Amino acid sequence: MALFVTCLTDTLYPAAGRATVEVLERLGVEVVFPEGQTCCGQMHANSGYAAEALPLVRRFVSVFSECDAVVAPSGSCVAMVRDGYPQLVRAAGEERLAAAVDELAPRVLELSEFLVGRLGVEDVGAYFPHRVVYHPSCHGLRLLRVGDAPLQLLRAVRGIELVELEEAQSCCGFGGTFAVKNGEVSAAMLADKCRAVLDSGAEVCTALDSSCLMHIGGGLSRQRAGVRTLHLAEILAATAESA
């Protein structure tokens, strides 16, 4: 199995990447890290730079085409590969590349999908004695349709108190460049999400995507709310020894 670490994890949230590897290796999965990997091209495509995204699609296919499974701690980047790539390459008339994307894309999985759907595992041996709320990110919820796989994993964590998030399916307002181009709307959506997190009484807010957690965490930090944000992988990697 190959780890696709993603840009945001690599540059800003490496702990989520390390935790992903720790959880997988604890379950006996052999993890490799193809060093040729780069950005998936989502930022380019979402900003209207389709031509600039295409070389990154080709590189992704070249780097990961021989892997039996590609796992990423990011629903957003996985959704780009599985949903965005087919649209992008066909719009460009790249039929040969489209065939390669179609062959590879089903093997590219978000972490909770891989654990629950591919390995059939819910209990990964985690221990995390804290009050936690889960935010379902838009890409995982609407494009990947991971369903309650993340919640199944969280419910199996020993010591955890999992609490409900009001209007959980509402977007946090990040949306990549959306937060830049539509700052006021994004800030209003973030305020609603932070209010829901605080109303839950949680100590920790978790999600599949570091991008959502960066946005939510920034809002909570500015309020001095005392609520931490942690990637799902970091909770699943926690044990009694590390608590």
Q: What brief labels describe this structure?
A:
243 residues, alpha/beta, Rossmann fold, 2 domains, four-stranded parallel sheet, three-stranded parallel sheet, 53% helix, 9% strand, globular
Helix/strand layout:
Blueprint: E1 2-3, H1 7-11, H2 14-26, H3 42-46, H4 50-64, E2 70-72, H5 75-91, H6 95-104, E3 108-110, H7 111-118, E4 131-134, H8 138-144, H9 149-155, E5 161-163, H10 178-181, H11 183-200, E6 204-207, H12 210-222, E7 228-231, H13 232-237
Parallel strand pairs: 1-2, 2-3, 4-5, 4-6, 6-7
Can you give me a brief rundown of this structure?
With 243 residues, the chain is α/β, with parallel strands linked by helices.
Notes on the protein architecture:
The chain has 243 residues and is an alpha/beta fold. It has two domains: 2-118; 131-237, 3-Layer(aba) Sandwich (Rossmann fold). It is built from 13 helices and seven strands. It has a four-stranded parallel beta sheet, sandwiched between helices. The chain has a three-stranded parallel beta sheet with strand order 1-2-3, with helices on both faces. The longest helix is centred in the last third of the chain and has 18 residues, at 183-200.
The main pleated sheet reads as:
4 strands, parallel
Q: For this entry, what is the oligomeric state of its chains?
A: single chain
Q: Helicity range of the residues? A: 40-55%
The tally of beta strands, per DSSP, is 7
| Count, helices | 13
Give the spatial strand order of the biggest sheet.
Answer: 5-4-6-7
Beta-strand content: 5-15%
- The radius of gyration computed from the alpha-carbon positions, rounded to a whole number of angstroms, is 18 Å
Encode the helix/strand succession as letters: EHHHHEHHEHEHHEHHEHEH
> How many domains comprise the coordinates?
2
Low-pLDDT residue spans: none
Shape: globular
